[in-house]
Design goal:
The complex is a heterodimer of chains A (about 120) and B (about 240). Chain A is an all-alpha fold and about 120 residues long. In chain A, about 80% of the residues lie in helices and about 0% in strands. The radius of gyration of chain A is 20 Å and the shape is extended. Chain A starts with a helix and ends with a helix. By secondary structure, chain B is mainly α. Chain B has two domains: about 70 residues, no CATH class; about 160 residues, no CATH class. Chain B has 13 helices and no strands. Chain B is globular, with a radius of gyration of 20 Å. The chains are: A mainly alpha (about 120), B mainly alpha (about 240). At the A-B interface, helix 1, helix 2, helix 3, helix 4 and helix 5 of A face helix 2, helix 3, helix 4, helix 5 and helix 6 of B.
Chain lengths: ~120, ~240
């Protein structure tokens, strides 16, 4: 497990290096994900080995957002007098984005299948 | 032997206590979530954050002191993002086959997320720095903060808005998508990842691995697309 974690960290480190060197919009860990995917495709054995650790980490992905979540509680007053409209805008916009994204995905995949 | 108050004075400054508290609060949140039959509004993040915020308030411990312990958990966000390559690799055939639907859903979902939040807030009279801080709310935090800063928003406020959006999406996704009658796990996960970044992705993994894999891709792609189009879209509201 420590070796697998080392693989993840090295990919993140490489991603961070590329992201910083080329001033990319994409953050280091996301570049690291692409690097690891490339490694998996080149070395299926590595994928077999790292898979359980990676999935184990992801099964508790929620936990990792807790510290940042606690941090925002003290900043909720920053919403100020606009608090209610902002909360409403966030909720409505999130619902709309999920709805539109999912419907377009389903519609497009039906179109693609019909063409086949 | 030391008196209890002295031991407490020592422990409350120690990372060990706050790291333990973070894991324990999450364990409570996760147990409640599982016992409730995985009800989406019993979100483990929401429960754990509420418990810890109350605990810090009651014990009068500052966030920086708390974070000295919690930062070890926070740090794992990076390696976990890299780990998204694993479900992506396991679902590679499904991902390749769904390239076109993903592309269309990405553009539609991303533009809807940005334009709708700006339009609704604008209609309520929100202007200036606060309005701009809203624009990248659907994107994973490190990218959202960067976008917010570059367009003249407040990164601190954006951080709050990003987390709120993530929790809202995680809570509403299941009932909303059931209401819409969408049964395709790829579509459900992808739309949630685009709209609600990592917290949405975490929720998708709780439900279904394919949904989680697609949510991870949605989150990654939307980070790139939003960074490119937000500067153009805010021109309309300037």
């Amino acid at each position: 497990m420590i070796y697998h974690l080392t693989v993840l960290l090295l990919c993140q480190l490489a991603g961070e290096f590329l992201s910083q060197s080329f001033n990319l919009v994409v953050p280091g860990p996301v570049v690291g994900m692409v690097i690891l995917l490339g490694l998996f495709m080149l070395l299926p054995k590595l994928a077999m080995a790292v898979q359980p650790t990676a999935l184990g980490l992801l099964s508790h992905l929620s936990l990792l957002f807790v510290p940042a979540g606690v941090g925002i509680v003290g900043h909720l007053d920053k919403l100020g007098s606009d608090g209610l409209p902002i909360l409403f805008a966030l909720a409505a916009s999130t619902a709309l984005a999920i709805t539109v994204g999912a419907l377009v995905f389903v519609g497009m995949s039906r179109l693609v299948e019909r063409r086949k | 032997m030391n008196a209890l108050p002295e031991i407490w004075t020592y422990l409350r400054q120690e990372p060990l206590l706050w790291l333990s508290a973070t894991l324990l609060a999450y364990a409570v949140g996760d147990t409640v979530f599982l016992k409730s039959g995985k009800r989406p509004y019993m979100n483990p993040v929401l429960i754990a954050v509420t418990l810890l915020a109350l605990l810090l308030w009651v014990t009068d411990v500052s966030y920086p002191t708390y974070f000295e312990g919690a930062k070890f958990v926070h740090f794992m966000l990076g390696p976990a993002t890299v780990a998204l390559a694993a479900p992506l690799y396991a679902n590679l055939d499904k991902v390749r086959a769904a390239a076109l639907p993903m592309f269309a859903a990405l553009i539609a979902g991303s533009v809807t997320a940005i334009v709708s939040v700006l339009a609704i807030a604008y209609a309520f009279g929100v202007r200036g720095e606060i309005l701009l801080s809203l624009a990248p709310k659907s994107v994973t935090a490190p990218v959202a903060l960067g976008i917010s800063e570059s367009i003249g928003g407040s990164p601190t406020l954006t951080a709050v808005l990003v987390i709120l959006t993530g929790v809202m999406g995680a809570v509403m996704a299941t009932p909303l998508l059931n209401l819409l009658g969408i049964k395709d796990w790829r579509a459900r996960g992808f739309a949630l990842g685009v709209a609600s970044h990592g917290i949405g992705t975490a929720r998708a993994f709780q439900v279904n691995e394919t949904a989680g894999a697609f949510a991870g891709i949605g989150m990654g792609l939307n980070a790139i697309l939003t960074a490119l189009i937000v500067p153009l879209i805010i021109q309309i509201f300037a």
